[in-house]
Amino acid sequence: DRVSTQSTGVKLPEKIESLLASIEHHDSENIYTYIGNSPNKQQRLKKRTMDGISTFTYTTRVHPDNQSTYLERKRSINKLEYKTLIQQRMLDHETIKINRKTFVFERQCFALNILVQPDRVKGLAFLETYMDDNVPIRLPETHLEILKEVTHIKEYSMFNLSKLPSDS
User: Fold this and answer.
1) Which of 14, 67, 79, 148 is the 20 to 30 A CA-CA neighbour of 52?
2) What is the pTM of this model?
3) SS3 category, 79
4) Contact (Cβ atoms closer than 8 angstroms) between residue 11 and residue 144
5) pLDDT tens-digit profile of 25-42?
6) Dmax over Cα atoms in the chain, in whole Å?
7) DSSP class of residue 136?
8) What span, in angstroms and rounded, lies between the C-alpha atoms of 168 and 159?
9) DSSP label at 127?
């Protein structure tokens, strides 16, 4: 069985907190910073804060022969490593800040990612799930308006969303 990531753009109702109150969920703040890029490799730092505790992750994505598929490696790093590596951030990319709400509904795990920064993407939201390819997605009755499937659309990748507009 293959497990894949599905990501869907959603329009959030004005009172998302009250809608999610009926679903047990966990809130976290995630900050993504790109620190390097070459034609075959991306490097990203993530700071995740939940219940006042922060964890740090260093991720590399290698695209063999510039193919669309990639090999992703993640490793936990400490705060000192994070502070050192963040000094290498890419100047043509902005840090992305996301409020993530994770929950389980009918044995499927979901992450509702609501972009907070930068301002030009503020309010954009993605609903992600990790699941078997042949299992249909079942959503809770939260009145989320699904706009489109964005899993393989490059403009919606974190890397591309973090790019500064070319006129900056």
Assistant:
1) 14
2) 0.78
3) helix
4) yes
5) 788 899 999 997 787 888
6) 47
7) P
8) 17
9) E
Token pair 């954009």 is found at 124
89 touches 96 (CB < 8 A): no
Structure tokens at 50: 């939940």
The CA distance from 110 to 25, in Å, is 10
Alpha carbon distance 89, 108 (integer Å): 35
DSSP state of 91: T
CA angle in degrees (0–180, nearest 5) for 162-114-102: 120
Backbone angles phi, psi at 83, to 5 degrees: -65, -35
pLDDT in tens, 96-130: 999 998 888 777 788 888 899 999 989 888 888 77
**Residues contacting 108, CB < 8 A, separation 6+:** 129, 131, 135, 137, 138
* Cα separation, 152 vs 27, whole angstroms: 26
Tokens of 1: 């069985």
Q: 26: Cβ–Cβ under 8 A, 6 or more apart, which residues?
A: 50, 101, 102, 103
Strand partners of residue 109: 104, 130
Read off the amino acid at residue 90.
M
Nearest to 115 by CA among 7, 5, 6: 7
